[in-house]
Amino acid sequence: MIVGITGASGSGKSTAARIFVKSGFYLIDCDAVSRELNSSPEYVSRIADVFGSEFITDGAVDRRKLGDHVFGSADMLGLLNAVSHPMIIKKIEDEIAAHDGDDILIDAPLLFESGLDSLCDVTVGVTAPDEDRIDRVIFRDGVDYDTAKKRVTSQQPNDYYVSHCDIVIENDSTEDELDEKTYDAIGKIRTLESGVGKRTMSAVCWMLIVVAFILSVVFAVFTLSGLHSDDGRHNGDATVYITSQTTQAEQTTVTSSTVEATEATPRAANFIDIETVHGYAVKYGTEYGVDTNLIMAIIKRESSFNANAVSRSDARGLMQIKPSTYLGEIYLDLCAEDDPELLFDAEFNVKCGTYYLHLLHDRYDIVGIEQLAAAYNGGVTEIKKGLDDENYSPDGVTLYTDRVPNQSVKNYIRWVRGSYNEYVEIYGDDPINDFE
């Protein structure tokens, strides 16, 4: 079980995190990971390249100086996040892998903003009244009232955590009561984790493995027979799959090319500056009628603006597109070359990803920011099922985003919507958007 805990400064998040540790959770402190990163040669070099060598002191990043530089500028902060978040996430993923089988708590002030929520089974938010938070910041940091108030009011309000987190701990009384509420939250999480007994769970896992094997064989038989689904699909690991509309002979060629194109050679990170990416988003958003703020939000979520990003399933580039997606349909429609290496070209990748969003709307009748994000991440079939179920959709067109059955897709929707709103603040509403 991986739990993410978050909360604004002075909320009592660290106190709640200590209760999780007492209850047997292994703690991954994102602030500590970030501090370690400051002396990493790769990170130091990248910060010097992007912001300048004046932000490096004694071989390490000067956190305070850099923080003062980016504070108040959404663009500068976004650029810093684009550099730091992928490296932080990689370190955290490595630590999770090293503690496989343990209950893990990720303590992250920017749990959703960084995308770390996508690694979590459950998200927990700690909230507190603003005046209580101000008092705690004054006591903890030794600052005056005005400074403490400025810090508190510049961060996310309590409603943000209430709307984003699966469980909310309201810290509005004594520390003893906070401890009690935290233990109650842990109890709820344990109930979720142990809803099936260990013996039963083991049996279920083995049964699922057998079923998965059988299905993989059946799928292979159908594939070799030239049969295919008529649906698009995103595999949940920042990749998309669009079914080919080619003939059986063409499919054979595409399948062969796809096999040859997998296992991309690792590449050095290539972070593209935000304004350049926004230029691509405007260009192809205009061409295909896609909201540029949605394009930007998906790019931030999928790759953090690293044009050389490669996922575990070989999804590539800024918008994380698999070779099978590209070779299956996109390159034919766009009259491009039969070469998945093109996906590492930043502009071309944005063109392909934007075209795919156009297909989701035009071919599969997916409308609205949340629905498009869900389809991009979870696949058309699952989203259509949700839209057809009154438990998940009020009108067959929009989703109740707090009721999405797949937790990963639910987190993805919330993260994309949050980033989308950030870009609306920077660039304004997009007049070319015809998806709402």
Keywords:
alpha/beta; five-stranded parallel β-sheet; 436 residues; 18 helices; two-stranded antiparallel ribbon
Q: How would you describe what is shown here?
A:
By secondary structure, the chain is α/β, with parallel strands linked by helices. Helix content is 56%, strand content 7%. The chain contains 18 helices and 9 strands. It has helices spanning 13-22, 30-37, 41-51, 63-70, 74-98, 130-141, 145-153, 158-164, 175-193, 198-224, 248-261, 274-288, 292-303, 323-333, 346-362, 369-378, 380-387, 407-427; strands spanning 2-6, 26-29, 56-57, 60-61, 104-107, 122-127, 167-170, 233-234, 240-241. The strands form 3 sheets. The chain has a 5-stranded parallel beta sheet, sandwiched between helices. Strand 8 and strand 9 (240-241) form a beta hairpin. It is globular and about 65 Å long.
Strand content: 5-15%
- Beta strand count: 9
Largest sheet: 5 strands, parallel
Alpha-carbon distance between the termini? 36 Å
Average pLDDT figure: 78
Return Rg in Å: 23 Å
* Number of helical stretches of at least 4 residues: 18
Shape: globular
Q: Stretches where pLDDT falls below 50 for ≥5 residues?
A: 195-263
Structural class given helices, strands, pairing? Answer: alpha/beta
Estimate the helix proportion, in percent: 55-70%
Largest sheet: spatial strand order? 2-5-1-6-7
Along the chain, the helix and strand elements come as EHEHHEEHHEEHHHEHHEEHHHHHHHH
Give the structure's gist in a few sentences.
The chain contains 18 helices and nine strands. The protein is α/β, with parallel strands linked by helices and 436 residues long.
